[in-house]
Structures are given as structure tokens and as C-alpha cells.
Specification:
By secondary structure, the chain is of the alpha/beta class. The protein folds into 2 domains: about 90 residues, no CATH class; about 50 residues, LysM domain (Membrane-bound Lytic Murein Transglycosylase D, Chain A). It is about 25% helix and about 25% strand. It has 4 helices and 7 strands. Strands 1, 2, 3, 4 and 5 form a 5-stranded mixed β-sheet that branches. It has a two-stranded antiparallel ribbon with strand order 6-7. Helix 3 packs across helix 4. This is Peptidoglycan-binding protein LysM. It holds the Pfam family BON. InterPro entries: Bact_Kbp, BON_dom, LysM, LysM_dom_sf.
Length: about 150
């Protein structure tokens, strides 16, 4: 799935993390599990401000959500997502939230003019990492799944 970049200074504050270093691997694993993600076949390795994910996930969606749960935490600058999906699906695009963004505006940008009402697709794709469509913040990375044909 590749390398994702994150803003080190924003995101979940996990025990053992600082703006200069991510939390230890076991704490990052607990963060993903807190969101209901299955980490039983996932290995996490921390190298400086980079986190490397290996092993497998049930689906492409779950692998992407694991990367976001780990990456959207203080101290993480990059996530190398090498998870293999048991059930492969089309990969999502990723979007870094900017100041003034809303999910509606992001939907218009990513899906095209007049597609603002599709913000719920983005919201649903990022559950349970997002608890409300209005609770996004600059620097946060979101999944932007392809629209169904």
C-alpha cells in the first residue's frame, strides 16, 4: 500500500509519544484496537518517526484504517503500510485536511463539483476514527474511497 505522510505535531496523544517520537509499538497497537480494528495479524515496528506495518488485515479498508489510526497520532511522520489484505479491494486515496476544510468541501474537491453531498461516503470510510462529520482538524489524514459506479 505504500508510504503515507502525517503531521507529527497533531493527532491522538498516546502514552509514550512526543512531537519528536511516536509512542512505542505496543501503545500504537492499543490505539488501533481502541477503534475496533483487528490487530491480531499485524506487526508494528517503530524506526525514529516512521512506523512500519506488516502482516495482514481482513480487507484493504481495514489495512488503510490501521495505517490512519497509527499515523494520526503525535510523533508519527510516516507510516510504511506493508499490510496484505485477505480480501483485496480498490485502494483509497488519502487527503490531508487543511485549515477551513469541511467534509463537504473535501468531497467537492476529490469527487468533483456538485458532489458535496457525498461527504457521508468520506465520513463512513473513516469511522470509527471519526466520531462526527464536523470533527476534523488540519493535518489529519483521511481515506477517500472511490465512489461506487
Amino acid at each position: 500500500m505504500g508510504l503515507l505522510s502525517f503531521a507529527k505535531s497533531v493527532g491522538a496523544k498516546i502514552v509514550g509519544a512526543s512531537e519528536t517520537a511516536p509512542a512505542p509499538a505496543d501503545q500504537l497497537k492499543k490505539e488501533a484496537e481502541k477503534h475496533g480494528l483487528d490487530m491480531s495479524k499485524t506487526d508494528i515496528k517503530v524506526e525514529g518517526d516512521k512506523v512500519i506495518l506488516s502482516g495482514s488485515a481482513a480487507s484493504t479498508e481495514e489495512a488503510e484504517k490501521i495505517a490512519l489510526a497509527v499515523g494520526n497520532s503525535v510523533g508519527v511522520a510516516k507510516v510504511q503500510n506493508d499490510l496484505k489484505a485477505t480480501k483485496p479491494e480498490p485502494e483509497s486515496k488519502f487527503y490531508t485536511v487543511k485549515s477551513g476544510d469541511t467534509l463537504w468541501k473535501i468531497a467537492e474537491t476529490e469527487y468533483g463539483q456538485g458532489k458535496g453531498p457525498k461527504y457521508n461516503v468520506i465520513f463512513d470510510a473513516n469511522k470509527p476514527l471519526l466520531s462526527h462529520p464536523d470533527k476534523i482538524y488540519p493535518g489529519q489524514v483521511l481515506r477517500i474511497p472511490p465512489l461506487a459506479a
